[in-house]
């Protein structure tokens, strides 16, 4: 009996997978394939359970018929690479086909459609067929179980991978969040450290500054204490010297008195012997007196214009201190000699261009520090110019400064500043300027010429001796003269108080103090001296008070009690405005106010003109007399 050939009712190729032409697998082949799959799974996943064992197969084979799948045998036809790819993609392509029982009969049926066709397999018995079918079902169920187990493992692997990925993401996020938190905390910590350090350094600096201030205050206090001690010692020394001088004077006076008494006694004893010589001694004394009077007349001769007669007693006409007259005479004499030499030099050369240049520079002087220094430098260059003798240029400068100072718009303090700077380089300039001031204004000596009919030919001659100008034979008015007088005194008052840092004023504030003392001691109280005193106080009173303090206050008391009283006693209505101004200056303490124009722009002249050490000096003069 031949075999029957069976044709599959399903297609041979499904989704690119070809059916196995030999559906009958051996048991050993199945075990080999399962072992290969198990090894691949064990190698690819750490989560796979222990490999399949014989016990597991027995358990799998112990399934009841009810648990077995009624479906036909399934066969997976693919190469090893395709199997691994299918496992990775979690998709296993399955194709199944059914093979129904084939009726096999030993009887031949001529009418059977299978007659004459070869059989698929040899006819077997019932037991063998049942065993074959059982083996087939067992293999199919085992494969199905393996596939389900593999699918479960794959799903578990995917879930584990997803969980691991999610956990890793959470860990990374936690790590990033923690890193940001720690970074913020670290930044805050560093900021707190920086703030603490800054506060600490600020406290240290504040403490250092406080200690420095305390130390500076202590140093200043020590310096003030030392200065006060030095001043007290200096004042004590002055008092001791004064007391010593007074004691010596008393001793000398006592000795002189004793000598006089002794001489008188001797004179009485020798009266008879000296009777013959008395006439000769009287004649000698008379001759000496006449010589002394002649010397005084000669000293004041330069200040007397034409028309003054020779007075019987020069002391009754010229009112001035002897020291002031000596200084005036020396300056005028030297000035006269220079003028004579200059006249000889002018005969050979014309210096008018230099004179115009000097006038232009003087007119350009302003109350600005840089301007003052620039003009002083330019004038010094002119004085040192070899093309023009220095004596000529200095005399021209002195004359032009004095003549131009008559203008009411003149900045006296600025001009005085320039004069001091020039005198520091050319000392002769100060002497020539003072000589020119003495020549045009006798009150800068100070000096006054009294009127006397025997001494002057007329009133005009007396006015000329005071410095009045004459134009076409006509004497200027008193008001014009007083205006010029005020301009000269304002320039002189500004000059004596001007001090520049690093420069010594040869005619400084001490000369101004001496001038004021000589003025009050020698000059009478009238309209001319009143205007002079008012102008001088307005210009130099501030500096004199800062330096001499209480001594200047004593001067003001004498002016108020004596000089103003003498002016009021004259009962002249023209004096009332001047008296009111002087009295207001004293009562309102205007000497505490800085005069207008004294401070140059860009510099405080009070600090430059009067050094701080000079303010602390003290002079003990008696209240009823002034020394110079």
From TrEMBL:
MF GO annotations = inositol hexakisphosphate binding; phospholipid binding; translation initiation factor binding
Q: Which GO terms describe its cellular component?
A: cytoplasm; nuclear pore cytoplasmic filaments
In this chain, composition skew of type Basic and acidic residues spans 282-301
Q: Does the keyword Chaperone apply?
A: no
Its protein name is: mRNA export factor GLE1
Q: Name one GO biological process term.
A: protein transport
Q: Where does it primarily localize?
A: nucleus
User: Which cellular compartments is it found in?
Assistant: Nucleus, Nuclear pore complex
> Which residue ranges are recorded for the region named Disordered?
282-315
Q: Which UniProt keywords apply?
A: Coiled coil, mRNA transport, Nuclear pore complex, Nucleus, Protein transport, Translocation, Transport
Tell me which family the UniProt entry assigns to this protein.
Belongs to the GLE1 family.
- Pfam family membership, one: GLE1
Keyword Amino-acid biosynthesis among UniProt keywords: no
List the coiled-coil residues: 224-281, 318-355
Organism encoding this protein: Punica granatum (Pomegranate)
Gene3D superfamilies attached to this UniProt entry: GLE1-like (1.25.40.510)
């Amino acid at each position: 009996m031949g075999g029957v050939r069976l044709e599959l009712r399903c297609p041979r190729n499904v989704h690119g997978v070809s059916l196995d032409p030999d559906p009958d697998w051996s048991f050993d082949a199945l075990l080999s394939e399962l072992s290969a799959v198990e090894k691949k799974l064990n190698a690819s996943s750490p989560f796979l359970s222990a490999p399949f064992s014989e016990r597991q197969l027995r358990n799998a084979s112990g399934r009841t018929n009810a648990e077995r799948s009624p479906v036909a045998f399934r066969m997976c036809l693919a190469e090893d690479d395709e199997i691994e790819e299918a496992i990775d993609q979690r998709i296993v392509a399955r194709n199944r086909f059914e093979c129904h029982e084939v009726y096999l009969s030993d009887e031949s049926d001529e009418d059977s459609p299978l007659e004459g066709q070869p059989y698929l397999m040899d006819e077997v018995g019932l037991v063998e067929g049942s065993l074959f079918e059982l083996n087939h079902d067992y293999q199919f169920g085992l494969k199905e179980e393996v596939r389900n187990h593999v699918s479960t493992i794959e799903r578990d692997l995917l879930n584990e991978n997803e969980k691991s990925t999610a956990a890793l993401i959470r860990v990374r996020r936690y790590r990033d969040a923690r890193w940001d938190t720690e970074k913020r905390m670290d930044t805050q910590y560093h900021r707190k450290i920086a703030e603490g350090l800054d506060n600490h350094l600020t406290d240290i600096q504040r403490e250092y500054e406080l200690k420095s201030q305390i130390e500076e205050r202590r140093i200043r206090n020590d310096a003030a204490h030392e200065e006060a001690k030095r001043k007290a010692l200096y004042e004590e020394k002055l008092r001791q010297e004064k007391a010593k001088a007074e004691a010596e004077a008393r001793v000398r006076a006592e000795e002189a008195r004793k000598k006089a008494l002794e001489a008188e006694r001797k004179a009485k004893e020798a009266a008879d012997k000296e009777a013959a010589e008395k006439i000769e001694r009287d004649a000698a004394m008379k001759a000496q007196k006449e010589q002394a009077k002649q010397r005084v007349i000669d000293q004041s001769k330069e200040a007397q214009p034409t028309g003054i007669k020779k007075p019987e007693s020069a002391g009754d006409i010229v009112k001035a201190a002897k020291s002031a007259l000596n200084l005036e005479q020396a300056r005028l004499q030297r000035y006269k000699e220079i003028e004579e030499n200059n006249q000889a030099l002018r005969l050979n050369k014309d210096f008018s261009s230099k004179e115009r240049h000097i006038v232009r520079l003087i007119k350009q002087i302003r109350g600005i520090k840089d301007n003052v220094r620039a003009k002083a430098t330019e004038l010094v260059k002119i004085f040192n110019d070899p093309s023009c003798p220095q004596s000529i240029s200095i005399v021209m400068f002195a004359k032009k400064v004095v003549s131009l100072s008559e203008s009411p718009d003149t900045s006296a303090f600025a001009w005085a500043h320039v004069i001091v700077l020039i005198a520091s380089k050319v000392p002769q300039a100060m002497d020539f300027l003072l000589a020119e001031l003495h020549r045009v204004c006798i009150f800068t000596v100070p000096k006054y010429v009294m009127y006397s009919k025997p001494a002057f030919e007329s009133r005009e001659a007396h006015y000329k001796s005071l410095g009045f100008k004459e134009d076409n034979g006509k004497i200027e008015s008193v008001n014009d003269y007083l205006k010029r007088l005020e301009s000269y005194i304002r320039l002189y008052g500004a000059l004596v108080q001007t001090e520049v840092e690093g420069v010594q004023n040869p005619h400084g504030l001490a000369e101004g103090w001496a001038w004021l003392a000589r003025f009050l001691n020698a000059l009478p109280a009238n309209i001319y001296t009143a205007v002079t005193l008012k102008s001088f106080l307005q210009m130099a009173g501030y500096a004199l008070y800062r330096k001499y303090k209480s001594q200047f206050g004593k001067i003001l008391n004498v002016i108020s009690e004596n000089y103003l009283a003498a002016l009021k006693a004259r009962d002249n209505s023209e004096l009332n405005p001047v008296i009111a101004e002087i009295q207001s200056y004293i009562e309102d303490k205007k000497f505490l106010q800085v005069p207008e124009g004294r401070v140059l722009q860009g510099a405080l002249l009070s600090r430059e003109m009067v050094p701080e050490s000079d303010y602390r000096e003290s002079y003990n003069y008696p209240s009823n007399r002034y020394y110079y």
